[in-house]
Structures are given as structure tokens and as C-alpha cells.
Design brief:
Its EC number is 4.2.1.10. By secondary structure, the protein is of the alpha/beta class. About 40% of the residues lie in helices and about 15% in strands.
């Protein structure tokens, strides 16, 4: 497990964490979230690399570059969750175990947020637990990868 590398992808507007709708998304900044993820990874003996972009193509490019470098992906695609066939296809194309996460419970929000293009190709989805959604997603992904002997 010492060589395990996990990619964490953050989609659009997540760079505004801590200031954007804190009643929904909390008061932690994206840097805080990334630091917590890297600390959690370190405690599990896993390297965690985080990337955020507001641009769909940049996220797709980063997913393509993950092949052969990372053993799994945790993704909060933000609004692209509900709109991006391109991100879905990129994840399916690299075929790395993927966990979809969301800070808020997308099923308690507007109806257009109830559909995810990513969920059907993910090993699981965790939403509604704030930053714990990311931490639980990372833990679940590492457990999944190590249980299949990757």
C-alpha cells in the first residue's frame, strides 16, 4: 500500500469554499479540505494529490493523465456532476476505481441536482456529510483498492 496514489478532483466553484454559501458548503476553504485529505492519506500510508478546476476540459485532461500514475480517484465534480458526459466518459475511459463525493446531500436540493452522470460508473457515492464526505470517500476507496489486491 505504500505506493498507492489517489487523485482527488474538485470541480467548478469549489475554489470558493469557505465563502460561497457557507450554510450549505461549510466554512472550510478548499486548502483546508486538501490538507485534511493529505493528512488522512498520510495516516493510511497513501499519497493524495488534489486538483481543482473550473474548466471541464482541464478536468478531463487531468483524468486522462491519471492513467498509470494513480490507483483511484475521488471526485467532487460540482455542477459538472449533473451535466458532463465528457467527465463521465473520461472516468470510464481510464477505468480507475472512482468514488463520487459531495459536501451537501444532492438529493435534498434542487431536482436538477438529483441526477449524476458519474454515479453509474463509480464504485460508490457519498454526499451530505460536509468535508467528511471527502474523508469517507478516500477511506472507502483505499479499502476497496486494497481489498482487490491492486
Amino acid at each position: 500500500m505504500s505506493n498507492l496514489k489517489i487523485l482527488v478532483l474538485h470541480g467548478p466553484n469549489l475554489n470558493l469554499l469557505g465563502q460561497r454559501e457557507p450554510e450549505i458548503y461549510g466554512s472550510l476553504t478548499l486548502k483546508d479540505v486538501d490538507n485534511l485529505l493529505m493528512e488522512k492519506g498520510k495516516s493510511m500510508g497513501v499519497e493524495v494529490v488534489c486538483f481543482q478546476s473550473n474548466h471541464e476540459g482541464a478536468i478531463v485532461d487531468f483524468i486522462h493523465q491519471a492513467l498509470g500514475i494513480y490507483q483511484g480517484i475521488v471526485i467532487n465534480a460540482g455542477a459538472y456532476t449533473h451535466t458532463s458526459v465528457a467527465i463521465r466518459d473520461a472516468l470510464a475511459g481510464v477505468n480507475l476505481p472512482t468514488v463520487e463525493v459531495h459536501l451537501s446531500n444532492i438529493y435534498r436540493r434542487e431536482e436538477f441536482r438529483h441526477h449524476s452522470y458519474i454515479a453509474p460508473i463509480s464504485i460508490g457515492q457519498i454526499s451530505g456529510f460536509g468535508v467528511d464526505s471527502y474523508l469517507l470517500g478516500l477511506q472507502a476507496l483505499v479499502n476497496h483498492i486494497t481489498s482487490i489486491g491492486t
